Amino acid sequence: MSTTIQNMKDIGPMAGGDRAKNESDPVKADYEEGKRFLNNGNLAQAAVSFHNALLGYEERGDKTGLANASNQLGHVCMAKEDYVGAENHYRRSLQLCEEFGDAMSLFTLSKRFVEVYRGQKSYDKAIEACLDLLDTYQKNNDPRGTVELLENMAEIYVEAGTVDKAADTYRTIAKIHRNYKHNSIADSFDEKAREIAAGA
Question: Most buried residue among 35, 94, 171, 200 by CB atoms closer than 10 A?
Fold first, then answer.
């Protein structure tokens, strides 16, 4: 009889453990399969899997599962550039997250709506969504998030043909960088503002 004990670092999960767990929960299996298909770019299969998961979560009355499946279907629609479908799925997820009081998910979904409206070329809605997010970044004293959002806003203004607002936004970004002594970065945004204003 052997008395050798296997080293703990050599012990791993049993092969197929996750698969066995998911097979006992077909709804979760559909959801996980959808994520895998989405990551691999197989959008049609991802949509089918997430839709099946959504139906399963609806039958169970699992609102968290519904919110997650709706969110993932929104991602599939975004990848397919179906911005109306994405808006509908994200809106359903948003309503559920509001019901849960899930601030982080609401914040993430708000960023998704900027992308949706931009894809729809609903630039006024995209800017309005950005301004709502800007309040959150400023309340959290997050200059990095503020600058990234302002850059996004400037691009939206350019796409919308309101280059004067884009130039103003780039100047605002430059001021923020100057406040943090990032002078060379600030200069580059001032230059961007001048170029855009000159091209108007």
Answer: 94
